[in-house]
Amino acid sequence: MKVPFPDTNSPADAASGKHLPSKNLAKLAWILVGSYKKWLVIIFIAMVVETAVSLATPWPLKIIIDNVIGHHKLHGWFGYMDDVFINENKMQFAAVAAVSLILIAAVGSIAGYVNNYFTESVAQNVANDLRKKIYHHLQRLSLEYYDTHQTGKLLSTITTDVSTIQDFAASTLMNIVVDTLTIAGMLGIMFYLNAGFTLVAVGVTPFLLLFVNRFKKVMKKATREVRQDQSNMLAVLQQGLESIRAVNAFGRQELEEERLKKVSLETVGAALKARRVKSVLNPVITITVSVCTAIVIWKGTDLALKGAMTVGALTVFLWYLNKFFSPVQDLAKMTSTIAQATVALERIQAILDTEIMVSEKPGAVDPGRLSGNIVYENVAFAYDHASPVLKDISISITNGQRIGICGPTGCGKSTVVGLLARFYDANGGRILIDGEDITNFTLDGLRSQIGFVLQDTVLFYGSVRENIAYGRPGATDDEIIEAAKLANAHEFISKTPHGYDTLVGERGLTLSGGQRQRIGIARAIVRNSPILVLDEPTAALDVEAEKIVMEALEQLMEGRTVITIAHRLSTISDCDKIIVLHDGYVAEEGTHDDLMDRGAIYAELYKIQSRSKHAHHKIIS
């Protein structure tokens, strides 16, 4: 899937820590703000007005110095004012100049308000668009992407990097445009006032820009290190806080604090390195500008004393000279900001340029309501191509059958159902549902036909009602309550302080394991999918909770094609067919009695578990 950003990085480079070649920042910024062209027109007009005001600001002072205090004549368009304001009316002339200064400031303030408001509006909307675009893209990447990328670093990009782009669009980018317009206007006026002095300023500028450019790559490298270390720090913080129960249980607070200390110190070191580079620029620029200004003051004073230049003209020229070098100084100050924005764009692009590894075919169709006949034809899959998980899997499941899948740890049981829902795509072979290759279906359409009850049901922060309806957002209250009753969850939900409106803590930690599972079953019931996947839904429950949950599962499985992944073989002993996986192949297939009579892998595993269970009961008794 392509995104509207020029390529600057590849996922491989991003993963390996390499950085991509820089792209034209102005071009990237234009792509970002291109949806807001009308606002940009308003901003540009406001900038032009601000520039004109900036150019006009010193002229009332020149008039006071040269034409009110001094006795020089006005030239050009304003010559007629000498006839209006004769010597006796000089204070009136001064008043006009003073009022003009106020009017210039008022117009500039209005233009500045319009510029700032609409610029911030564009920046906020650009940030909003970026967040939605990144999150949309992340939601559609296959689980393979998340196997190799830390969530904390992705969060850092969505928050900090997007915020950096927002700040750049809101201030730095617009300042660059205003500075460019101002320089163009000032050059014309400065050449008009004194061409020789102007050439001094113009001659120094390329050397200053060259000096700034020499530090640009160093600054960008230092900024990239800062952002990498900040991402690492966020990843450590997130992992520590998400695992706080385990941290407390094992008394490993000091270890987690030491991890944070290490990455935090690395962040401090990288930030100080970036600051050292930035701190070198400003003194050099300031001294160079001061030398240039000193030359103009020295030579300008000589010209003023000789009458070749008025004091007012010298004052205005010095004002313009200071303003002319201001953008160069700003550029030095903005080197860090520009580097941050460039790095932020690269990090954002590294995500957006990642291909959606599980993508829909052109012309993919919604399958509608499926019957649930499933066929795996010579399916192969590997997370790492050097270590295939499934090598040649062929399974046939008839509508309404209850299938159990078992085998040693790591044999690919969960991978089989993951491929069915296209969380990953098979490397070889194909999977059919109702005789149709699943890659011909839309992803949403396919997944809507599969319900999941997992070993650890994930609940989201929100009400019980919202968590059940997560299976089908359009479910009515009656459907939600009916699903809860079928899942044996209605009774305990009704006893909570606010019933179905009771808030569930983060990840459902305010509920017991059995209660979470029953809400998960209610979620699957309300989804009403023809295919049901049970991934060890009772493995973490005690005997009493398991009994209640199994009763609910019996209600859920009625009339559906059911695939149960099992470690405890007793939970699948009554399945219509049991599939035993071993070393990437289907090693055995049949009913519980058939496999026990065969006396191979399944029978051996079952006997081992039976002996273990018997020994456990003896210890308890």
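Second entry:
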Amino acid sequence: MSKSTFKILFYLRKNQVNKDGTVCIMIRLSLNGEISQFSSKLSVKPDAWDTVLGKAKGNTQKARQLNETLEDIRASLKNHYRDIEVHESFVTVENSLLNPQDIESVSVLKDASSAAVYGARAAFGVVLITTKKGKKGQKVTVNYNNNFSWSAPSRLPDGISSDKWIDAVQLANTNTNGSGYFSQELVDAVHAYCQDPSRPSAFLDETGAFTAKGQWAYAGNTDWFDEFYKSAAFMQQHNASIQGGTEKNAYYASIGYKGQDGLLAYGTDTYKRINMSFNFTSQVTKWLEIGFRAKYNRSESDEPNTQAYMGSSPYYEVYRSFPFIPIYLPDGQHFAAMEGSNFNYNYAGILAEAGRLKNVYDDIWYTGSFNITPFEGLSIKGDYTGNRYFRTQREHLKTIYQLNPDGSQTAKMPTNKAGLRKYDDTYEALNVWAEYKKQIKDHSFSVMVEYNQERKNTSDMYGVAANLYVNDFPIIDMAKDKETLSESATVWAVQGAFFRVNYDYKGRYLVELNGRYDGSSKYASGSQWGFFPSASLGWRVSEEKFFEPARKLFDNFKLRASIGSLGNQVTNGNFDYIGTVGSENLNYVLSGQIPTGITPATLAYNNVTWEKVTTANFGIDLGLLNNRLTASFDYYMRYTTDMVVSKAYPNTMGTSGGKENLASMRTNGWELSLNWADRINDVAGSPLEYNIGVGLSDSYSTITKYDNPTGTLNDLYVGKRLGEIWGYTTDGFIMDAAEAAEQSKRQSYISNTWIPGDIRYADLNGDGVVNEGDSEKGPINTLSNHGDKKVIGNQTPRYRFNINLGLSWKNFDVRALFEGVMKRDLWLSNEVFWGFNGVWNSAINDYHVDNSWSEENPNAYYPVPTWNSRSKQVQTKYLQNASYIRLRDLTIGYTLPKKWLEPIGVSQLKVFFSGQNLWEATGLYKYVDPDMTGNTYQKSSDGMVGTLNSDMKSYPFCRSYSFGINLTF
């Protein structure tokens, strides 16, 4: 059997019942479980996740951030796990390494009963990806696909002119500190350059009025967004496969290559990947089949090493650029503004000269399997999987030099360095299971039992050396100072046993019972094991005699119900049940040296065990009008109990740690899918086939138990809806000096200084002041004492939807995928939204300047420009409407007629053109894309889902256009 599965929460289990890897057999895993299924008759995509995106009902989240949220698989996944990986058998494969050409079909298992076979760690649902394999007796088939794509970032601001930017900075600094920041000479020089661009943008500062005497002074006009990004980044992907079989044997082999250029115009960034896979099965005897699978993935990334110079992602840093800095000095060869004072830095120069960060990944998988059928009805199967994973990272931080006006050079700190990381891990898994099926007249029975064990050892060594003898030679032994050397290693293991019993009467009454007994090395002795049962019922009403009058309309009418519990491993590390100590430098001198001491031991998590996820699911499946119309609806309630969170301890304990199973959460949700597939027999002489699919889902989660004795709103609390946003109610702008003086008293809790154009907040409790509560009544900003704050919104995405449209006529086919969210609030807190945030951190663009309050523009959107945060408190006016709809994919394909191809021995040749993320409509701030609002966490130590952010510190969201071919011999 050959298949891969996407891991959603944990290391997923292989489908132990599936005989040939097809989805239809997969459904038999759970006769009553909730499963979405679809085939991957798709053109080659840049990433395997694109193949999955939008195909399962309720699955509408972005592919780019699947490692940040699990809402894609089930709208109820308000959990606190972040890793998403891909599995083959029991094993873990990085999702980006899966060759999309190898994907045969995808299924989504959503309830506890259907997911139970995949282990307790599949508590929040499972995505199964079935990879292709050869078939016995199949003739040799060769397939080749390619894809060529060009991508460009979307929703980026245009660069602001330097004269407008410097005037805005001067105004904000004056409103904050009483005077402008930059000298008038610099302001005048910038204005002069914008009026006459033939003037020099870099010149000697002879007075010290611009930067410092003897340094370069800059007064140019650079559109940094235009300079920073390429107009388009190129990607190419090639995949080839061969498959076939004889009477007893079958094989499939593939190779894929992906080469992708990044968006950076300077420094360049590249990514390369090669995938190779092979699987083989052989029917040795009538009762024994053996199989072997192997996969090798190698990927390489090469990007500028800018962290030490920029302090953050360059994709964020470009927002806060100084537009009066030119890229080059007057000679047109050396970079300007690499070192100096009174200006930000030259992003282009740093990207080009800071050094490189290179990663090489090697991932090797191998699996041997057997299937013994000693007599009819009994199947005994097993497999062993091994994996070796290697990562080599080389860091090169170069010293950057500034060419000075006098011809000398000044080095920019920090010093140059070379770093080397060697990471590897070894993974192995053993699975043995047996299934017995028996048919007695109209009664069908099946029983399955399974044993599984897994183990993973990891090792990580990292070294850094500084002061390279040669700036361009990043070898640790070629550096003067050995700065860092560290090594870490760890191990984890799990064991589990599983049983499943199925009963089916005439395909009409369906019963299923499951039980798992799982153990984990991550818990202390006595807490390692847990038992997790589940059960489901199904009733094919359409098979009943009394339903016969309705069969002219209904082809299928099925009712489903299931309830079950699965376990969830929740730990920060593999040995949290053991207290650890560290070291630190002490704050005194002993014998002329600063001594090192031992830190207090962390509190061990001795009382932590499995988190339990219990789901009750009720569903209905319908097929009408000869199955042209199909529908499915599910309502579910999920209770997550024994959630692992930090216990509240007094500060006098002097240590950290100490988690226990102290919290509980309830999730309510529903999902609806409708699909219509039909044909028009004669459209211009040929039939036209079309399909329309709509998916809609909703869910919300509520905390039902939590250790928050004071009821502080800065933490979770009983009754809280996850995603709540607390804030003030906006009551307009302060319009004059007299009102500003009044608000300096009324709103003194927030700030003692207010000026015209600042925000006025509403006094909701009528006590004459605006604050978070009365300190005389106890702790403020609590459930019982929150002053003038209230719940003003919720960031939870609600009413997710997707719309799939398909059409085929003659040899043409068209597919379109729309997806979105109907309701979602979002608070944007950083300078990308606000613009003004200090001279060095502002991200000002034309929109900020043109829409800020002034006496001439009293009805503006933004408050008066200042560096102060007093008008940027969480409030109703600036709460964003983050609902959106996006055209995620549009593909047009043409299959050449077979009569053209047969003479040259070609079975099929298809040409396609595709566009991704071509259009969206959203209520968000115009320069923020819905897909760039990733997840952060309110209590990162507990892993609880928290607030969203939009700091733009990740790769920008892109529109892409591609074409390619699909060729089969």
